[in-house]
Design goal:
By secondary structure, this protein is of the alpha/beta class. It has eleven helices and eleven strands. It has a six-stranded mixed β-sheet, sandwiched between helices. A hairpin with a 4-residue loop joins strand 6 and strand 7 (146-152).
C-alpha cells in the first residue's frame, strides 16, 4: 500500500509556501512538490496595532487558492494550513482566518511563536545533510519573526521567537527602501537586533556548536551566488560564510532598490527587505561568534509534514 500524502501550506509574513510530501519506505520524508509565492500579506506589521490590509488579504487568499490547486493532483489525504507572525500579530487575523475557511473550506491554524519554533526544529531534524550534527543552533528568519533554537544531542533545549523579521525591521528602521542604505539606519537596526538577542534570554552556551540558518535570506544568497557562476541553487555550497554575508551587505547596501533588482539572482519581490535581512543575519553571526551558517531548506513545513505523517 502506498504511503499517505500530505500537503502543508505555510502562510508567512513575506511568502506563502506549499510542501506536498510523503514518507518513503526507509522512513525519510520525500518532497513531491514545493512552490513559494511572494504575497507579502504583512505590510504594516511593525505598527503598534498591526492590521492586515484588504490588498494583503486578497493576495494571501489568491496565493492559497493557487497552492491548493498545485497540491490537488497529488490527492493529499490531509491538508494543513498554518499562519505565523503576520496573522498571529494582526488584530484582524481572525477575520482573515474566516475568509480563507469560507473561500476554501480549509481552516487555518495560527501558530504561537513557541509552536512555530518547535515545528521548525522538528523539520530540521529531517534534513539528511544535518544528520552528523549533535549540538547546534538553528535560526529561521522570516518576514515577521526570527526563531532561535538550540539543540543538545539533537534534542531542543531552547526555542524562542523574536520579532526581528525582515519586513518588520525594514518598516521600523529603513524609511526609504528605494534608496541606498543609510549608515545611521543600519547601525540602529543592528543595535536593535543585538539588544533583542541579549534581552531575550537565549543562551549561546554550546561550545563549538555549528549554526544552521533557514528561510529565504540564505536561499537568496545561494541563488545569487549560483547566478554568478551559471549554476542553480542545488549546485551551490550549502555552507555560507559570515564573511560572504558581510561582503554582500556592502554591495547591496550601496545600491538603490532599482539597482538591487538588477543583481543576477536577486528575487525581485524581496529586494526591498533583503538589506534588513542581511543586517540581521550579519549581526546574529557577530553576536553568536559564528563564522559560517549551514543552510537548510527543511523548516516549518517539513516539521508539520513529519507530524502529520507520524
Amino acid at each position: 500500500m502506498s504511503s499517505p500524502v500530505v500537503a502543508v501550506i505555510d502562510i508567512g509574513s513575506n511568502s506563502i509556501k506549499v510542501l506536498v510530501a510523503t514518507r518513503r519506505s526507509d522512513g525519510r520524508l520525500e518532497s513531491l512538490k514545493t512552490l513559494t509565492i511572494d504575497a507579502r500579506i504583512s505590510a504594516g506589521i511593525s505598527r503598534a496595532a498591526p492590521q492586515l490590509s484588504e490588498e494583503g488579504m486578497a493576495r494571501g487568499l489568491a496565493a492559497i487558492h493557487e497552492l491548493l490547486a498545485v497540491a490537488a493532483p497529488f490527492e493529499p489525504s490531509h491538508t494543513v494550513l498554518v499562519a505565523t507572525s503576520a496573522v498571529r500579530d494582526a488584530l484582524n487575523g481572525p477575520e482573515f482566518q474566516q475568509r480563507v475557511q469560507l473561500a476554501t473550506g480549509h481552516a487555518i491554524r495560527i501558530l504561537s511563536g513557541d509552536e512555530e519554533a518547535d515545528l521548525i526544529g522538528r523539520g530540521l531534524t529531517c534534513d539528511p545533510a544535518l544528520a552528523h550534527l549533535r549540538d547546534f543552533y538553528v535560526f529561521d528568519l522570516g518576514g515577521g519573526s526570527l526563531e532561535c533554537l538550540a539543540f543538545r544531542d539533537r534534542r531542543i533545549e531552547q526555542a524562542i521567537s523574536l520579532r526581528l523579521g525582515c519586513v518588520r525591521m525594514t518598516e521600523k528602521f529603513i524609511t526609504d527602501s528605494h534608496a541606498p542604505l543609510n549608515a545611521a539606519a543600519c547601525t540602529e537596526l543592528a543595535l536593535h537586533v543585538r539588544d533583542t538577542l541579549k534581552q531575550s534570554g537565549f543562551r549561546f552556551n554550546l561550545p563549538g556548536a555549528e549554526a544552521v540558518f533557514t528561510g529565504g535570506t540564505l536561499t537568496s544568497v545561494r541563488v545569487m551566488t549560483g547566478a554568478l557562476h551559471g549554476v542553480g541553487l542545488d549546485d551551490t555550497p550549502a555552507v555560507v560564510l559570515a564573511s560572504t554575508l558581510h561582503a554582500l551587505l556592502d554591495e547591496v547596501g550601496g545600491k538603490s532598490l532599482a539597482e538591487r533588482r538588477q543583481i543576477p539572482g536577486m528575487p525581485t519581490a524581496r529586494a526591498d527587505v533583503f538589506p534588513a535581512a542581511l543586517i540581521t543575519a550579519v549581526t546574529l553571526a557577530e553576536f553568536g561568534l559564528f563564522e559560517r551558517f549551514h543552510h537548510s531548506l527543511y523548516n516549518l513545513r517539513w516539521g508539520l509534514a513529519a507530524r502529520a505523517l507520524a
